[in-house]
Amino acid sequence: MRINRLLIISALCLASAFAQQKTQIVMLGTGNPNTDPERSGPATAIVVNGASYLVDCGPGVVRRASAAAKKYKMPALESANLKTVFITHLHSDHTLGLPDLIFSPWVLGRAEPLKVYGPPGVKAMTEHVEAAWAEDIRIRTTGGEPSNKTGYAVDAHEVAAGTIYKDTNVTVTAFNVKHGAWNEGGIERAVGYIFQTADRKIVISGDTAPTEAIAKACNGCDLLIHEVYSQAGFALRPPEWKAYHSRFHTSSGELAKIATDAKPGLLVLYHVGFWGQTEDSVIAELKQSYSGKVVSAHDLDIY
User: In angstroms, rounded to a whole number, what is the distance separating the alpha carbons of residues 150 and 102?
Assistant: First the structure.
């Protein structure tokens, strides 16, 4: 009887350890600049071993993280535990949540500076955010309010292609993508990210026009999280917007080719340009020439 109990306890401990190691991806925000109340600005959380790593911080990121923490009983996404973010590029729809991510978790107890990784320009952005809220910082640190004097600070790192971050949970590699004017002037200012954990490889495109770099980065990855726009919707757009989207973003047909070459276990669509089309119709466009598994993500979906 004692041996059986020990076997059961050992099995439970092994199951618990496996559960802790399993990497989970939470789509905090799946939207774009359109003010869809069902889709917050772009933000994705990679959660492993009780730690969270965010990619982009669109509007609503902290509250979406709090909602995910409650829904999935995931302490890593509680406000005070939001400590690291990787930014793909500096468009406002991907960064308007940065002041929220800097200050709200600090007010709610985070004592560590926020670590921010992103392309050139991210240091200036964080410095200007801190300057804009200088009065808030002064009052909260000297005006008698309960606070710490470290959690509002930012540890910003400007990245180039290559391995940019590594700890016991994850290795993060940046790679250049094509996002129109963000890549002009000889400086690459738009990147995608590869997250390699013990059990999963995740690739996040950020905003990009078609590029072979995506398939090369994925190369059979577990999840490819990629932006896309509807070809049918594109046909209805004004000429100036057609010129913009064809240069800065990826159509469903173009993504079908990328995904066919990349061979992800699952293709996850986000930052979708629907323009009057539906999720099913966009997936149908992809399925015309892509045979792999594909889903259209919603806020708070988990993979």
Answer: 11
8 A C-beta contact, residue 158 and residue 89 = no
Q: Would you mind telling me the total number of residues written for the chain in this entry? A: 303
d(CA 111, CA 256): 44
For residue 91, which amino acid is it?
A: H
Q: How far apart are CA 53 and CA 8, in angstroms?
A: 34
The token pair at 216 is 């090369």
pLDDT tens digits, one per residue of 179-198: 988 777 667 799 999 999 99
Quote the pTM value. Answer: 0.92
Instruction: Report the candidate in 280, 267, 151, 158 with the shortest Cα–Cα distance to residue 214.
Output: 267
The contacts of residue 48 (CB under 8 Å, 6+ apart) are: 21, 22, 23, 24, 169, 170, 197, 198
What is the C-alpha separation between 80 and 114, in angstroms, rounded?
Answer: 10
Give the pLDDT confidence of 246-297 residue by residue, as tens digits. Answer: 999 999 999 999 999 999 999 999 999 999 999 999 999 999 999 999 999 9
Are the beta carbons of 170 and 197 closer than 8 angstroms?
yes
β pairing state of 43-48 and 51-55:
antiparallel
Q: How buried is 46 (Cβ within 10 angstroms: 0-12 exposed, 13-18 middle, 19+ buried)?
A: buried
